[in-house]
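Technical annex B. To support the medicinal chemistry partners, we prepared a structural model of the target in complex with pyridoxal-5'-phosphate, based solely on the information shown next.
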Amino acid sequence: MNIIEVENRYTSGVYPKRPVAIIRGEGARLWDDQDRMYIDCTGGQGTANVGHGNLFVARAIYEQASRLISLTEIFYNDRRAELLQRLMGIAPPGLERAFLCNSGAEAVEGGLKFARLATGRTGIVAAMRSFHGRTMGALSTTWEPKYREPFLPLIPGVTHIPYNNLEKLEQAVTAETACVLLEIVQGEGGVRVGEPEFLLGAQEICRRKGAMLVIDEVQTGFGRTGKMFACEHYNLQPDMLLLAKSIAGGLPMGAILLGSRVGEIPLSSHGSTFGGNPLACAAALAAIQYIEDHDLPARAERLGAHALARLQLLNLPVIREVRGMGLILGIELRQKVTPYLQTLLEMGLLALPAGSNVLRLLPPLVIEEADLDRAIDLIAQVLAAEPVAVAE
Ligand SMILES: *Cc1c(COP(=O)(O)O)cnc(C)c1O
Protein backbone atom coordinates (compact mmCIF):
# COMPACT_ATOMS: atom_id res chain seq x y z
CA MET A 1 0.00 0.00 0.00
CA ASN A 2 1.23 3.50 -0.81
CA ILE A 3 0.40 5.16 2.50
CA ILE A 4 0.64 8.73 1.24
CA GLU A 5 -1.56 8.12 -1.82
CA VAL A 6 -4.24 6.36 0.22
CA GLU A 7 -4.35 9.07 2.88
CA ASN A 8 -4.41 11.81 0.28
CA ARG A 9 -7.33 10.11 -1.42
CA TYR A 10 -9.50 9.61 1.68
CA THR A 11 -8.52 12.21 4.27
CA SER A 12 -10.57 15.36 4.88
CA GLY A 13 -7.87 17.63 3.51
CA VAL A 14 -7.69 20.01 6.48
CA TYR A 15 -4.07 19.26 7.37
CA PRO A 16 -1.01 20.68 5.61
CA LYS A 17 0.90 17.38 5.39
CA ARG A 18 4.61 16.64 5.19
CA PRO A 19 5.56 14.06 2.53
CA VAL A 20 6.60 11.30 4.93
CA ALA A 21 4.83 8.29 6.49
CA ILE A 22 6.00 7.74 10.08
CA ILE A 23 5.30 4.28 11.38
CA ARG A 24 7.20 3.83 14.64
CA GLY A 25 9.17 5.64 17.31
CA GLU A 26 11.49 5.24 20.25
CA GLY A 27 12.32 8.07 22.63
CA ALA A 28 12.93 11.14 20.45
CA ARG A 29 13.49 9.17 17.25
CA LEU A 30 10.95 8.29 14.58
CA TRP A 31 11.17 5.98 11.59
CA ASP A 32 9.35 6.16 8.25
CA ASP A 33 8.06 3.28 6.12
CA GLN A 34 11.43 3.13 4.30
CA ASP A 35 13.13 2.60 7.70
CA ARG A 36 14.70 6.05 7.57
CA MET A 37 15.34 7.58 11.01
CA TYR A 38 14.41 11.14 12.01
CA ILE A 39 15.23 13.12 15.13
CA ASP A 40 11.84 14.26 16.42
CA CYS A 41 11.67 17.88 17.55
CA THR A 42 7.88 17.96 17.07
CA GLY A 43 7.25 15.69 20.05
CA GLY A 44 3.81 14.78 18.71
CA GLN A 45 3.02 18.53 18.81
CA GLY A 46 3.69 18.41 22.54
CA THR A 47 1.96 15.12 23.39
CA ALA A 48 5.11 12.99 23.62
CA ASN A 49 6.98 14.38 26.65
CA VAL A 50 7.76 10.86 27.92
CA GLY A 51 9.00 9.78 24.49
CA HIS A 52 7.68 7.49 21.78
CA GLY A 53 7.34 3.77 22.42
CA ASN A 54 7.55 4.32 26.17
CA LEU A 55 7.23 0.78 27.54
CA PHE A 56 6.32 1.88 31.07
CA VAL A 57 3.26 3.73 29.74
CA ALA A 58 2.56 1.02 27.13
CA ARG A 59 2.43 -1.68 29.83
CA ALA A 60 0.04 0.38 31.94
CA ILE A 61 -2.20 0.86 28.89
CA TYR A 62 -2.11 -2.84 28.07
CA GLU A 63 -2.89 -3.89 31.62
CA GLN A 64 -5.77 -1.44 31.99
CA ALA A 65 -7.13 -2.20 28.50
CA SER A 66 -7.37 -5.88 29.46
CA ARG A 67 -9.21 -4.98 32.68
CA LEU A 68 -11.56 -2.12 31.82
CA ILE A 69 -11.41 0.54 29.10
CA SER A 70 -14.71 2.37 29.28
CA LEU A 71 -16.65 3.60 32.26
CA THR A 72 -18.43 6.92 32.42
CA GLU A 73 -18.24 9.11 35.47
CA ILE A 74 -21.68 8.09 36.68
CA PHE A 75 -19.73 5.21 38.27
CA TYR A 76 -16.68 5.42 40.51
CA ASN A 77 -13.40 3.81 39.40
CA ASP A 78 -10.08 2.89 41.06
CA ARG A 79 -7.79 4.34 38.36
CA ARG A 80 -9.80 7.58 38.16
CA ALA A 81 -9.72 8.08 41.92
CA GLU A 82 -5.97 7.47 41.92
CA LEU A 83 -5.41 9.92 39.07
CA LEU A 84 -7.52 12.70 40.60
CA GLN A 85 -5.55 12.37 43.83
CA ARG A 86 -2.26 12.30 41.90
CA LEU A 87 -3.15 15.42 39.86
CA MET A 88 -3.95 17.35 43.03
CA GLY A 89 -0.64 16.19 44.51
CA ILE A 90 1.36 17.76 41.66
CA ALA A 91 -0.89 20.77 40.94
CA PRO A 92 0.10 24.32 41.86
CA PRO A 93 -1.35 25.33 45.25
CA GLY A 94 -4.99 26.34 45.40
CA LEU A 95 -6.28 23.80 42.87
CA GLU A 96 -8.58 21.30 44.53
CA ARG A 97 -10.72 19.35 42.07
CA ALA A 98 -10.70 18.34 38.41
CA PHE A 99 -12.96 17.81 35.43
CA LEU A 100 -11.53 15.19 33.07
CA CYS A 101 -12.04 15.39 29.30
CA ASN A 102 -10.35 14.28 26.09
CA SER A 103 -8.43 17.10 24.43
CA GLY A 104 -7.06 20.59 24.80
CA ALA A 105 -9.96 22.28 23.05
CA GLU A 106 -12.36 20.44 25.34
CA ALA A 107 -10.45 21.65 28.38
CA VAL A 108 -10.85 25.20 27.06
CA GLU A 109 -14.59 24.69 26.38
CA GLY A 110 -15.16 23.44 29.91
CA GLY A 111 -13.08 26.25 31.36
CA LEU A 112 -15.23 28.83 29.56
CA LYS A 113 -18.45 27.21 30.78
CA PHE A 114 -17.23 26.93 34.37
CA ALA A 115 -16.13 30.58 34.30
CA ARG A 116 -19.65 31.61 33.24
CA LEU A 117 -21.18 29.47 35.99
CA ALA A 118 -18.79 30.80 38.63
CA THR A 119 -19.28 34.47 37.80
CA GLY A 120 -22.68 34.78 36.12
CA ARG A 121 -20.85 36.87 33.49
CA THR A 122 -20.09 36.19 29.82
CA GLY A 123 -17.06 38.29 28.82
CA ILE A 124 -13.72 36.67 27.96
CA VAL A 125 -10.37 38.41 27.73
CA ALA A 126 -7.68 36.52 25.79
CA ALA A 127 -4.40 37.54 24.19
CA MET A 128 -3.32 38.34 20.67
CA ARG A 129 -1.28 35.46 19.19
CA SER A 130 -3.06 33.04 21.55
CA PHE A 131 -3.94 29.50 20.55
CA HIS A 132 -6.63 27.66 22.48
CA GLY A 133 -7.98 25.16 19.96
CA ARG A 134 -10.45 24.83 17.09
CA THR A 135 -13.89 23.98 18.47
CA MET A 136 -16.36 26.86 18.31
CA GLY A 137 -15.85 28.13 21.87
CA ALA A 138 -12.10 27.60 21.95
CA LEU A 139 -11.83 29.09 18.45
CA SER A 140 -13.59 32.23 19.67
CA THR A 141 -10.64 32.79 22.01
CA THR A 142 -7.88 31.78 19.56
CA TRP A 143 -6.27 34.85 18.02
CA GLU A 144 -5.28 33.94 14.45
CA PRO A 145 -7.91 35.64 12.24
CA LYS A 146 -7.46 33.12 9.41
CA TYR A 147 -8.60 30.32 11.76
CA ARG A 148 -11.58 32.33 13.05
CA GLU A 149 -12.95 34.35 10.15
CA PRO A 150 -14.46 31.51 8.07
CA PHE A 151 -16.57 30.53 11.11
CA LEU A 152 -18.05 33.84 12.21
CA PRO A 153 -20.21 34.47 14.16
CA LEU A 154 -18.42 32.84 17.07
CA ILE A 155 -19.29 33.30 20.75
CA PRO A 156 -19.66 36.99 21.59
CA GLY A 157 -17.88 39.04 24.23
CA VAL A 158 -14.26 38.06 23.50
CA THR A 159 -11.59 40.78 23.68
CA HIS A 160 -8.00 40.17 22.57
CA ILE A 161 -5.30 42.28 24.24
CA PRO A 162 -1.58 42.38 23.39
CA TYR A 163 0.26 39.64 25.33
CA ASN A 164 2.47 40.95 28.15
CA ASN A 165 0.61 44.30 28.17
CA LEU A 166 -0.77 44.73 31.68
CA GLU A 167 -2.22 48.18 31.05
CA LYS A 168 -4.36 46.89 28.16
CA LEU A 169 -5.44 43.94 30.30
CA GLU A 170 -6.49 46.27 33.13
CA GLN A 171 -8.65 48.24 30.67
CA ALA A 172 -10.17 45.11 29.10
CA VAL A 173 -11.30 43.40 32.32
CA THR A 174 -14.67 44.83 33.37
CA ALA A 175 -17.64 43.92 35.55
CA GLU A 176 -18.80 41.77 32.58
CA THR A 177 -15.63 39.67 32.42
CA ALA A 178 -16.08 36.01 33.34
CA CYS A 179 -12.46 35.06 32.75
CA VAL A 180 -9.02 36.00 31.56
CA LEU A 181 -7.60 33.14 29.47
CA LEU A 182 -3.82 33.07 28.98
CA GLU A 183 -0.95 30.79 28.05
CA ILE A 184 2.27 30.98 30.09
CA VAL A 185 4.36 30.55 26.96
CA GLN A 186 2.47 31.25 23.75
CA GLY A 187 3.28 28.11 21.78
CA GLU A 188 1.58 28.34 18.39
CA GLY A 189 1.85 32.12 18.65
CA GLY A 190 5.63 32.07 18.24
CA VAL A 191 7.10 30.81 21.54
CA ARG A 192 6.58 34.03 23.50
CA VAL A 193 7.30 33.78 27.21
CA GLY A 194 5.01 35.51 29.70
CA GLU A 195 6.58 38.20 31.87
CA PRO A 196 6.13 37.75 35.63
CA GLU A 197 4.64 41.26 36.08
CA PHE A 198 2.06 40.47 33.40
CA LEU A 199 0.98 37.06 34.68
CA LEU A 200 0.99 37.99 38.36
CA GLY A 201 -0.68 41.27 37.43
CA ALA A 202 -3.39 39.33 35.59
CA GLN A 203 -3.96 37.28 38.75
CA GLU A 204 -4.30 40.42 40.85
CA ILE A 205 -6.70 42.04 38.36
CA CYS A 206 -8.86 38.91 38.25
CA ARG A 207 -9.12 38.74 42.05
CA ARG A 208 -9.86 42.45 42.35
CA LYS A 209 -12.50 42.48 39.61
CA GLY A 210 -14.14 39.12 40.33
CA ALA A 211 -13.05 37.33 37.14
CA MET A 212 -11.56 33.83 36.87
CA LEU A 213 -7.91 33.46 35.86
CA VAL A 214 -7.85 30.53 33.45
CA ILE A 215 -4.35 29.38 32.50
CA ASP A 216 -3.90 27.21 29.41
CA GLU A 217 -0.98 24.85 30.02
CA VAL A 218 -2.07 22.39 27.36
CA GLN A 219 1.35 22.77 25.69
CA THR A 220 3.56 23.83 28.61
CA GLY A 221 2.38 21.28 31.18
CA PHE A 222 4.04 18.08 32.41
CA GLY A 223 7.65 19.15 32.56
CA ARG A 224 8.04 20.92 29.23
CA THR A 225 9.32 24.25 30.60
CA GLY A 226 11.56 22.87 33.35
CA LYS A 227 8.87 22.59 36.04
CA MET A 228 5.94 20.18 36.17
CA PHE A 229 3.74 23.20 35.32
CA ALA A 230 5.00 26.52 33.96
CA CYS A 231 2.86 28.33 36.61
CA GLU A 232 5.46 27.23 39.17
CA HIS A 233 8.12 29.51 37.64
CA TYR A 234 5.93 32.46 38.70
CA ASN A 235 4.20 31.08 41.81
CA LEU A 236 1.04 31.75 39.85
CA GLN A 237 -2.21 30.44 41.36
CA PRO A 238 -4.81 30.23 38.60
CA ASP A 239 -8.48 29.59 39.32
CA MET A 240 -8.46 27.02 36.54
CA LEU A 241 -5.53 25.20 34.98
CA LEU A 242 -6.17 23.63 31.56
CA LEU A 243 -4.18 20.52 30.68
CA ALA A 244 -4.03 18.04 27.80
CA LYS A 245 -1.33 17.04 25.25
CA SER A 246 1.26 15.16 27.37
CA ILE A 247 -1.05 14.40 30.30
CA ALA A 248 -1.51 10.72 29.38
CA GLY A 249 1.76 9.81 27.66
CA GLY A 250 0.25 10.53 24.23
CA LEU A 251 -3.21 9.05 24.68
CA PRO A 252 -6.01 11.61 24.17
CA MET A 253 -6.95 13.23 27.46
CA GLY A 254 -7.55 16.66 28.92
CA ALA A 255 -8.25 18.08 32.36
CA ILE A 256 -9.46 21.25 34.01
CA LEU A 257 -8.05 21.72 37.49
CA LEU A 258 -10.36 23.89 39.59
CA GLY A 259 -9.57 26.28 42.42
CA SER A 260 -11.79 27.37 45.30
CA ARG A 261 -12.93 30.61 43.61
CA VAL A 262 -14.78 28.51 41.01
CA GLY A 263 -17.10 27.31 43.77
CA GLU A 264 -19.76 24.64 43.44
CA ILE A 265 -20.42 23.43 39.90
CA PRO A 266 -24.11 22.54 39.48
CA LEU A 267 -25.00 18.90 38.90
CA SER A 268 -25.26 17.94 35.19
CA SER A 269 -24.06 21.36 34.00
CA HIS A 270 -21.28 19.70 31.97
CA GLY A 271 -20.09 16.21 31.05
CA SER A 272 -18.28 13.95 28.60
CA THR A 273 -18.84 10.29 27.71
CA PHE A 274 -15.15 9.47 27.38
CA GLY A 275 -14.08 11.90 30.12
CA GLY A 276 -12.21 10.16 32.94
CA ASN A 277 -12.23 6.77 31.24
CA PRO A 278 -10.06 4.21 33.08
CA LEU A 279 -7.72 3.66 30.12
CA ALA A 280 -6.72 7.32 29.83
CA CYS A 281 -6.49 7.57 33.63
CA ALA A 282 -4.12 4.57 33.78
CA ALA A 283 -1.99 6.04 30.99
CA ALA A 284 -1.86 9.41 32.79
CA LEU A 285 -0.86 7.76 36.08
CA ALA A 286 1.99 5.96 34.32
CA ALA A 287 3.09 9.08 32.41
CA ILE A 288 3.16 11.20 35.59
CA GLN A 289 5.07 8.44 37.41
CA TYR A 290 7.59 8.28 34.57
CA ILE A 291 8.02 12.06 34.50
CA GLU A 292 8.73 12.07 38.25
CA ASP A 293 10.92 8.95 38.35
CA HIS A 294 13.15 10.33 35.57
CA ASP A 295 12.94 13.93 36.77
CA LEU A 296 12.02 15.07 33.29
CA PRO A 297 11.32 18.69 34.36
CA ALA A 298 14.99 19.00 35.48
CA ARG A 299 16.09 17.34 32.25
CA ALA A 300 14.01 19.80 30.21
CA GLU A 301 15.52 22.69 32.12
CA ARG A 302 19.11 21.50 31.64
CA LEU A 303 18.81 20.49 27.97
CA GLY A 304 16.69 23.55 27.20
CA ALA A 305 19.28 25.93 28.68
CA HIS A 306 22.01 24.13 26.73
CA ALA A 307 20.06 24.32 23.45
CA LEU A 308 19.05 27.96 23.97
CA ALA A 309 22.67 28.95 24.66
CA ARG A 310 23.88 27.16 21.53
CA LEU A 311 21.13 28.65 19.35
CA GLN A 312 21.83 32.15 20.69
CA LEU A 313 25.46 31.80 19.59
CA LEU A 314 24.50 31.01 15.99
CA ASN A 315 24.76 34.60 14.80
CA LEU A 316 23.23 34.04 11.35
CA PRO A 317 21.65 36.91 9.39
CA VAL A 318 18.37 34.99 8.92
CA ILE A 319 17.80 34.71 12.70
CA ARG A 320 15.95 37.61 14.33
CA GLU A 321 15.64 36.22 17.85
CA VAL A 322 15.88 32.97 19.81
CA ARG A 323 13.47 32.39 22.71
CA GLY A 324 12.40 29.58 24.96
CA MET A 325 11.76 28.08 28.36
CA GLY A 326 13.00 24.55 28.99
CA LEU A 327 12.36 22.43 25.91
CA ILE A 328 9.94 24.73 24.14
CA LEU A 329 12.25 26.70 21.86
CA GLY A 330 11.55 29.22 19.12
CA ILE A 331 13.88 30.61 16.48
CA GLU A 332 12.29 33.68 14.91
CA LEU A 333 13.46 34.13 11.32
CA ARG A 334 13.48 37.05 8.91
CA GLN A 335 12.05 34.60 6.34
CA LYS A 336 9.15 32.21 6.07
CA VAL A 337 9.93 29.02 7.97
CA THR A 338 8.24 26.41 5.70
CA PRO A 339 11.11 25.95 3.19
CA TYR A 340 13.57 25.38 6.03
CA LEU A 341 11.30 22.78 7.65
CA GLN A 342 11.16 20.92 4.33
CA THR A 343 14.97 20.91 4.01
CA LEU A 344 15.36 19.78 7.62
CA LEU A 345 12.98 16.89 7.00
CA GLU A 346 15.09 15.81 4.03
CA MET A 347 18.13 15.90 6.32
CA GLY A 348 16.44 13.79 9.02
CA LEU A 349 15.09 16.37 11.47
CA LEU A 350 11.40 16.97 12.16
CA ALA A 351 10.53 20.40 13.56
CA LEU A 352 7.47 22.65 13.82
CA PRO A 353 6.48 26.13 12.72
CA ALA A 354 4.88 28.63 15.11
CA GLY A 355 3.23 31.20 12.91
CA SER A 356 4.79 31.93 9.53
CA ASN A 357 8.35 32.79 10.57
CA VAL A 358 9.20 30.97 13.80
CA LEU A 359 10.88 27.57 13.85
CA ARG A 360 9.67 25.75 16.95
CA LEU A 361 11.35 22.83 18.71
CA LEU A 362 9.26 20.66 21.01
CA PRO A 363 11.27 17.45 21.43
CA PRO A 364 10.24 14.67 23.79
CA LEU A 365 11.86 15.50 27.15
CA VAL A 366 13.75 12.19 27.03
CA ILE A 367 15.74 13.30 23.96
CA GLU A 368 19.41 12.24 24.13
CA GLU A 369 21.74 15.20 24.43
CA ALA A 370 23.64 13.99 21.35
CA ASP A 371 20.43 13.98 19.30
CA LEU A 372 19.58 17.50 20.47
CA ASP A 373 23.08 18.66 19.52
CA ARG A 374 22.75 16.97 16.14
CA ALA A 375 19.40 18.77 15.67
CA ILE A 376 21.03 22.12 16.42
CA ASP A 377 23.92 21.32 14.03
CA LEU A 378 21.41 20.58 11.25
CA ILE A 379 19.46 23.77 11.99
CA ALA A 380 22.67 25.81 11.93
CA GLN A 381 23.63 24.27 8.59
CA VAL A 382 20.22 24.82 7.01
CA LEU A 383 19.75 28.38 8.30
CA ALA A 384 23.21 29.31 7.00
CA ALA A 385 22.22 28.33 3.43
CA GLU A 386 20.04 30.27 1.00
CA PRO A 387 16.37 29.40 1.47
CA VAL A 388 14.79 27.23 -1.22
CA ALA A 389 11.30 28.17 -2.36
CA VAL A 390 8.79 25.43 -1.55
CA ALA A 391 5.04 25.53 -2.13
CA GLU A 392 3.11 26.00 1.14
C1 LIG B 1 -2.75 22.29 21.31
C2 LIG B 1 -3.30 23.34 22.16
C3 LIG B 1 -4.69 23.44 22.40
C4 LIG B 1 -5.70 22.57 21.72
O1 LIG B 1 -5.53 21.23 22.04
P1 LIG B 1 -6.24 20.10 21.13
O2 LIG B 1 -6.01 18.84 21.90
O3 LIG B 1 -5.56 20.13 19.80
O4 LIG B 1 -7.67 20.46 21.03
C5 LIG B 1 -5.12 24.41 23.28
N1 LIG B 1 -4.25 25.24 23.89
C6 LIG B 1 -2.91 25.18 23.68
C7 LIG B 1 -2.00 26.11 24.39
C8 LIG B 1 -2.40 24.24 22.79
O5 LIG B 1 -1.08 24.18 22.56
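Notes passed to the chemistry partners:
DSSP finds 13 helices and 17 strands in the chain.
The radius of gyration is 21 Å.
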